[in-house]
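Is it possible to get an amino acid sequence alongside its tokenized fold?
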Amino acid sequence: MYGAILGDIIGSPFEFDRGDKTKNFDLFSEGCGFTDDSVMTIAVGEALLAVGPDAAVKEIEEAIASNMQDWGGRYPHAGYGGRFRHWLKEKNPKPYGSYGNGSAMRVSAAGWLYDSMERTREVARATANVTHNHPEGIKGAEATASAIYMARNGSSKEEIKEYIEGEFNYNLDRTLDEIRPEYHMDETCQRTVPEAIIAFLESKDFEDAVRNAVSLGGDTDTLGAITGSIAEAFYGIPAVLIAECKSRIDVRVG
């Protein structure tokens, strides 16, 4: 999950279109730090590990909801969206039909932990369902986890592209240069996940992938988290970046 956390940290200073839409920036600039993307990524990963690989969907959903509320309580000011912030405090939390990109930024563990695409997608759906049970919210989580699963199992970029386009009907034929001029802050899955995947597809290594994502502007920490999670599975991450990541997260997170 280092890829998601690094993408979050690197992208965090430029959120809300505060960057210059360029790839030329200091990778760890002033003000960068982990946000809700990292906190919830860890919450989901920890819950999935706790219930084990064969857990039923209901058990997964209950564990995810409980763990996200627990981690949200530990980090109440990590930058949560308004509706999710209220959900974190509810005694009996229910999904609220969101199609926000939060379902995709927190799902990376589901792409790593299972031995089949079918199970990967089933668990990805479960991680989304506790809050983001709109079809687009579920699709964003499934697409991200699917790309990670394929990347870590040796699929080529073209194979990943074809699968995501065929299964999720995302348009991945656009280029970053075509997207960048008109792209702006958008927290929906349908306007974040395909762009994040394209940032990965156009990259040459892990760092380049994250730079691609941040260069789009908009919700840069979440774009970075999604792109970084896929890029990690495909390229791996240099040890120096993992060390930098560890130095920038709370010891309670690490």
Summary: The mean pLDDT is 96.
